[in-house]
Fold each of these.
Amino acid sequence: MTALSRLAKRWGLQTSSFLFFVSAGIVVVFAALTIAFVEPMGNAFGAASTWLLTNLGWFYIFGVSVFLLFLIYLAISRWGRVRLSEEDEGPEHSDKAWFAMLFAAGIGTILMFWAVAEPVNHFANPPRAGVEPSSIEAAREAMGFTLYHFGLHTWTIFTLPGLAFAYFIHKRRLPPRVSSMFQPFLGEKIHGPIGRAIDVVAIVGTVLGVAVSIGLGTLQINAGLSELLGISESAGAQIIIIAVVTGVAILSVAAGLNRGIKVLSNINILVAIGLLLFVLITGPTLVMIKGTVESAGTYLFMLPDLMFWNDTFHDTGWQGSWTVFYWAWTITWSPFVGIFIAKISKGRTIRQFITGVLGLPTLFTIVWFGIFGMGVFDIEMNGDGGLVERVVDQGDIPGAMFEFLTNFPLATLTSFVGIVLVAVFFITSMDSAGLVLDTMTNGHEDPAPTKQRVFWTFSVGLVAAALLIASGDEGLSVLQDFITVVGLPFFVLGFLMMGNMLRALKEDAGELPPLQTRRWLRVLPPEEWMRRRRAGTAEDAVMVPEPVAGTEPEYTDDPFDLSSDPHNDDTEHSEKSAKE
């Protein structure tokens, strides 16, 4: 027994001692260095971000578009029929509950933060040359770019790892870790140094990525409280906000998935829809409806061009501040959101998974941004204006939503509802992250000591506070620099993920239609397997990935050769016809 194992036993932990203590140590040291050396840390990430944006910004943009094309291929191919479960089990959650949970955990906070801020920014400062600011063409392009950032591409970043997790966790019964997605190439080495390194990077990167979102949400809550109650927008106020929200998130994560996260998600999505309908009914309703439909068409028309657009000729640097930042930020969420989506998606086919996770949230995003975006343009072009001045000229992006709501009835009440929405959205993000981070370190989804989930939830709040202290008055720009750097290794893992996914599908199907796939024994990390073996509860679990005997497929070099397929009812008939 190692020193780390003895320490874990003394503290009553049931987890991988190496992953837990190494990842936790890196997180704590990072937070301490960030607070102690504010300026050097900020300068270091600023310099690294500048280099990446100049030399590798294209890689971020290229990567997400390739991921999207890969997912579309899987959905329409024969692999789309594969069910993400050991047997032909149906989904565990209804479509309504499934959508609410994946939406709240994945993008709820982002929608509240950018619903007004992004359209008004692109309206006042069009991304592409030749478009007159604050014009009708600027409004159209603003919606096209906004939906590009929050539509299919954002959800692609969540869907790819979510699908890989779902396959390897539910089909091959591997541990719920990022390293499990590399089992086709690494084999049992997923438990070795390479696998552990992958998992440490994923765990630490997830903590940092979620912390950035908490930081942005805190800035927005602070802006709303300043609008309503006159509370100063300061580091002290933001630390208090983080402390309160982290405390509520800890209570939620201690309650578990069904009693905490699921209930909060369902309530919050209903409140968000309520706010959306209020804006639609009390605003220029017809303009918003027509504009939303038109924006959907603009998005689909612009999408093929934007997917690989790198601003090569003008090189204004705009994409670094917007597109690259979004992709880098979102991909740091991908391990956490991916495992969470995989957990709630057991029993769905690959085709159902891809179309659901890509399609449903994207449709909601089009409606959400369509209504708020059209409201922005109506205020600026036909109303009293003021949004461009506050959000763009003064740079008050966190206050954009609250400035927008002052143009509607019951502004104080709706602003309060907006604050609550942001708070609950990132409470669900924090408690979901705490649950998933604990699952990743444990290597299994069975009940574990609550203190472990509480620690990871607390660690997200701690890093968020450290980042806000380090960012000072620069706020958003420092967070952008930081997350751009952290996102790079995740893109590299994404390309490797696609190769592993294809190889696993081909191995398990034997390249023979119909898709009768082999089954796998449940795999536990070595420490957990040894602990359960000593306790006599290991049952049929194994340490080394191993298929169930007798379920191996018959392989052939020709995927269309049906002669050796025992399940093809037409084989005997074909042979008889040939003789005749």
Note: Confidence is low (pLDDT under 50) at residues 558-580.
Amino acid sequence: MKVFLILIALLSSFCGFSQDSNYDEFYKTIEKRVFYHEHAKLLDEINVVLANNPDGYSTSEIENLKVLKVQALVDANLLDEGLALSNEILSENHLTPYHLTSLLIQRALIYEILEEFQKSFDDLSAAKVYIDKDQRIKTKYYAIWLIRMSSWYRVQDKKEQSYHLALKAKEFAEAQHNLSKSSEAGILLAFYHSDHKNYDEAIALNNKAIAVGKALNNKISVTYLYLNLSGIYKKLDQERLSNIYIDSAFNHIKNTDYLEIKSTSYKMKSEASEARQLLDSALYYYKTAVDYEKAHNFNLKTIKINEQTLDFELKKEQIEKEKVVTENKTLYKNLLLIFIIALVLLAFLIQEIKRKKQTDRQKLIIEKEALKLEQTVKDKTFLIHEINHRVKNNLAVILSLIEIQGQESNKTTEEQIKQLHDRVNTIALGHQLFSYDLDTAEKSFVNMETYAKTVFETKRSATTKPFSYDIEASKVELMVDIALPFGLVLNELITNSIKHAKPSNAKVLALNLNISLQDQNIQVIYKDNGAEFPTPQNSEAMGLYIVEGMLNQISASYTREQSTFFITIPYAKNS
């Protein structure tokens, strides 16, 4: 089991070197050191950057280097340190989803080795979320994720699930033309076949992995694969081949600095010598293995001490930074207090200046308002004068109408009241078409088409005799003092037509009014379609008297040809 987990850890670093790097040469150098298991050099170089950052790397770049450091710590079997660093990275939360996926897979391996399988599964599940969301991440990490899941099931003796995931990983890697990951998945398949005593398939898969490892010059992986083959041949009772692969592992690693794997190789060499009764050689190899193991353990302790020293220095630096920040905050507070006091004084001065300006402004406004009020009083006085003037004129007209109405003794009181009502209502209709205000006090104009239409409609609603009418008077206006008398004239003419006009052939009574502007005069033509033109009697003469009186009041004149009246009104306005 230990050999298997060590090999799994190697596989993790095996995939790391193949990633495309977007960072500088230092990042690439660190990746190479991870791949070749140069733990001491790697950690020394990264720790210098973490402590001092001499090249001014960005926060994101620093965090990505920390991910590589976690990978190196796991590879060196410094699991506690790797887990602590991964927790620190996650708390900072500066990783992109791409590098976060790599870190989660590394954490899953740590928890798997520590046999905390639920935590391992949780990190693998979190990594899968990012793999499913981003095709670039899936291309990079899906195969190794499948390998990690396969390993997760294998160490829990769930070999069938492990096999199917490893097979899926191999298929995906081959589709991506990624021989390294295909080889890693093949090693897991080799374990499965070995467990099921399908040794030929297991040997073939190990040999393929050895070929890839040699091509990539990954001596540790190749050495472990040699030792794995030695174990398979030992199960087959083929001691000669088992010893050959032990020798291959021994020779492959003996001139390297990889102390842990050298210790393992020398131990297996000792066991093989002991089995062959070469006791002196067995003792030599065993002592050498122990020496390498001690040296390896010493290196691990050195690395741990260095990590603790770095952690102490970083915490010390953090404390110093916090102290500086605290001092700066105190200074800032003092400066802020001084600034606030200065602002208060300045605000007070500004307020005083504003207050004086406001007082002056209010004084000026009061003076302007006083002048405006004085003008308003004058305007209102003028408006009242105008209203009084027009009311006086209209009352005079109404009194004249009443006096005239009283002279018509041949009519009933009801009929007289109705005629008086129509005449006074005509004046009221004119008033409805304009309003008294300062803007129209001097010149109030009434649209003649609108006024005439209103008079016609009023007469239509007040009589039982049907009639039609036509008005042509667009854009012609009269001042209200002229329009109201004209309205009375129009009322009398319509009344006269309704009473006396008799259209031929039983036609409906048709009234026509044409108002046009000619030079500085308004020309009015009024007629009906009556066929008979009776001589005016007393009552009709009274109506014509009103017509003449109103026209004289506005300096207008008229002529009559049978049922057609021609009226000329001066002082018109064309709107």
Note: Residues 13-22 have pLDDT under 50 and may be disordered.
Amino acid sequence: MMLLSLLANPAVRPDLFTARRAKPAAKQSRWLRMAEGISLWLAVLLMLFVHPLYAEARQMDMEQPGQLYLMNDQNARQQPAVILDSEFQVRVSGLLAQTRLTRTFRNASDQWQEGIFVFPLPDKATVYGLRMTIGEREIVGHIEPKAKARQTYERARQAGQHAATLEQHRPNLFTSRVANIPPGESVQVEIRYQQPVAYKHGEFELRLPTTLTPRYMPGEPLAETQGPWQSGWALATTEVADAHEISPFTVRPTDVDGGSHRARIGIEIESGLALADVSSPSHRLHTELDGARATVRPEQEKVLMDRDVIVRWRPVAGSEPKAAVFHQTWQGEDYLMAMVLPPETVGPVLRRELVFVIDTSGSMAGDAIAQARSALLKGLESLRPGDSFNVIQFNSQAHPLFAQPVPAEGHYLARARRYVQDLRANGGTEMAGALSLALGMDSGPGGERVRQVVFITDGAVGNESALFNQIRSGLTDRRLFTVGIGSAPNMHFLREAARWGRGEFTAIHSGAEVDRALNRLFAAMEAPVLTNLDVRWPDQGQPLEPVPARPGDLFRGTPLIQVIRGLPAAGQLQVSGQLPGGRHWSTSLDLAQAAPASGLNRQWARGRIDELTDAARLQGQAPDEQQITELSVRHGVISPFTSFVVVEQRRARPETESAGSQSIPTLLPAGSQPGMLRYPQTATFAPLFTALGLLGLMFSLAIAMLNRRPSL
């Protein structure tokens, strides 16, 4: 207040400010004095306004720590967010894992709520069931075309009915909406899905994603696309049209209720092979082994949903499968799944040109960039005399270390190691520029070499489809290999980028995994062990539709897996190919020895949908929506054009009651830096900072007017 008195006192004003000469102007002087008075009174009022704002901000900062609050359109505090509980019940049989994922949405507020949750599933998941449970009542969902499913859900939500929907945005990214959760009560939503179990190098692996790394959304924002289904921190862009639907808020575990975002996990394994051990690089496990069966759960009763859950098991040495076949009859049709491993063979050592691409964007900050540096240094160690190499780092822009690949010699390698050790993570994830640079780079001197690209990233991008097209069109004679980094990488991007790049992929969960994962990858990169594959099923006089229709080259330790419809379990399956050095290899499999299985029809349908999508991409056309929808509805599996919806017919919410809507955040992936946090609008000091800014503006205006006033 002393400063205000000094400003208002003409007697001291000459001592505070430099007087300036001006022509007398009584009218102008009166207006200046009036503006000064208004400005000073506004400043006083703002100071009186700031104190309660500061007190409220401090109170909101201190009360109920660990409780997330949202703000409504009037900047008023809402009730605590819906509390989320999850349970994974997994049953593994042979090469398929069936999972029952139960989400419990508990409304801790005194208002009816809608819960919206964007979450990951395994990148090869086939979703085939949705159920909703309210109290003792269970309602089974069904599949509808996506637009119709949204309309069905919206009508039920507005009519006060219990309802839920599940829709796919990417093969590994989904949204669940639950309408009209009563105050203080819970609604359970059960999702059923299956996934193939990965098998490489004599080891099976199952991955259960629980959170995701926030994705970079390239392109210019399209603000006009906001609507009732806007549920994330991002706006739709010219390159990611659904960015507003795939960008859930990301918070710390301490930002949510202490009982929220935890999961119970139970896994039953029936491998058909005597098991040597079960392990996990992500969690400590409690395991009960009984021959070919195992019961597995984390040592903690509930695990925090901040990383992928990874479980691996190995058969007893000498009993590793070389081939396997499974059979199912569904609605009168036969389905077969066959797995054949190529022989362990080593071809001639080839000279290679390796271009290492490392992601140094902001999403890689923390443990991920340390793992990426270790992976790249390991790659440099794999180089042999006669090889050439280069290093490209990318974030908002891509930068090569050398203008072109250089020989893998001492001084070049030493310079590259120093360069890699100094890399830090910040900026955006402009992956397209890095791919253009890597795939378009001219070869260095020194003759013909096998050209390979090693792409090290967490895959946290929203424009996957455009990047796959870029890889396909720009690959030429190269092979692209991907290395996934972090506790929650985008496995869909990593797997598909390697497939379109005719290479292999691996994922590194922690620093301890680097040597193990990369030794296998670089061994596979030396050369495919089986090319020119020819798979011949018994001739039944009718066209067959195997998926994949044309399997690619096989790398060391990686099996051929194919599913076919309409063929009984009889006759011989013939598989042949070319080994390194041009030698011929072939094997046969007796289909009559097929083991019984379930879910093969769904696996075939999911593969067929993928084939139709790939074919459209290769032709530069839109996928056949009608055919994909028919496949989806007939086999009961979700697709890009269909969604699950479930509605309880009776009204639950009274007409006199209104309902809110809350987007449930995901947890920051373990090892990530705070820069990846994406908060909803919460109770913060923002109003205080706004008031302080206005106060400063009023003082500046008053001082400027006093300076402009004519001197006496």
Note: The two ends are 26 Å apart (CA to CA).
